[in-house]
Amino acid sequence: MTTIMPIYGTRPEAIKMAPIVAGLLAAPDLECVITVTGQHREMLDQVNHLFGIVPDHDLNIIRPRQTLNGVLTRTIEGLDTLFDQTVPDAVVVQGDTTTSVAGAIAAFHRGIRVIHAEAGLRSFDLFSPFPEEANRRMTSQIASLHLAPTATSRENLLREAVRPEDICVTGNTVIDALLEVVQKQVPFSDPALEQLGRSDRRLVLVTTHRRENQGEAMRGVGRALARLARTYPDVDFVLPVHKNPVVREAILPQLQGLEHVIVTEPLAYGEFTRLLSMATLVLTDSGGVQEEAPSLGKPVLVMRENTERPEAVAAGTVRLIGTDEDRVYTEVQTLLDDADAHHAMATAVNPYGDGRAGERTVAAIRHLFGLGDRLPDFTG
Ligand code: UD1
Ligand code: UDP
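That is the input. Now the predicted structure with uridine-diphosphate-N-acetylglucosamine docked in place:
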């Protein structure tokens, strides 16, 4: 039996890997051995719990205020020990985290094939997002199968001389996960959020965690939010805050005592997607949220200088605004005050997937091992 080992460790990888894991477990001719690194803990377990995934191996590498090199070396060491007992035919890594590149390197060094999900995203700036742009480029160098979410990501890989036959355009599995979960409209565990669900007040959903934004930029975003909350008492601002203490130290002091700012712990994915479906607009520096919100027709203001996800920018639902405090304030103000400006960005588009990315991924993996045919590429 061909053994495939998905390796993942953070919240976004877990969400995006869930449809792949489901497909691998359902394939009668594949054995799926699920390995988590535990780069995240609560935020990873939350997702596995929701999707009913019980890992076979858990390296539990998380440390308080962990460093990139610490995460990288503990992951490689943990996987190397695991590969002494269990040698899969291929690993699947997802995206651009440290877990992802470490999983790819650890497997490559042991002669195990690397399958890269969400391959070919490029910002074309090595230092932004840091270190993700470098991570995904390194993984592309050693992967045997590149699962590109869109035609644009496929073209990026072709320009880097990846062979066309090694690339399959699948769509992004985050859309599979989103479509499965959002329709459940789960109850909120926080009564303040449940209350929002019953009101017709407008809602601005905010997330931030990117390393480039930590420190002064994030404090500025906090100040912009505080000013917005004072200017718009008829709007609720909800910030499910990342577990990273560096993020909390930067943004939370700016938001103390504001009546219509609701700060929550990281929300379970079902609750987060319900909130997303209720939002008037989204202010974020997240990669995954940039992909999800356009599907639900939600305008997204992205607090970054560049993006490796240009498709929704081109479609007009995502705007790059950077992190300047005044710019954040005025961009949100425009969307709250100008119904036409909001309407122009609020068209539902699906450049990132059609909900069948998991299926295409598993077909491409089976094809790699001579077990079947690929499905036609996702065309957007
Ligand atoms: C990492 C990924 C980033 C991804 C983000 C998703 C890398 C290089 N970066 O961010 O691409 O967008 O995750 O959220 O891999 N922590 C907890 N509990 C948790 C999760 C985190 O306490 O459940 C703490 C950790 O101990 C750590 C801090 O938060 O000290 C930051 O976590 P980490 O995974 O190192 O974050 P990033 O590298 O910023
Ligand atoms: N998300 C979640 N709960 C939250 C905030 C985000 O489930 O409180 C989900 C969100 O829907 C998206 C993913 O987490 O699928 C994004 O994770 P994150 O922003 O941490 O990482 P990135 O996508 O930037 O790598």
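The first strand starts at residue 2 and ends at 8.
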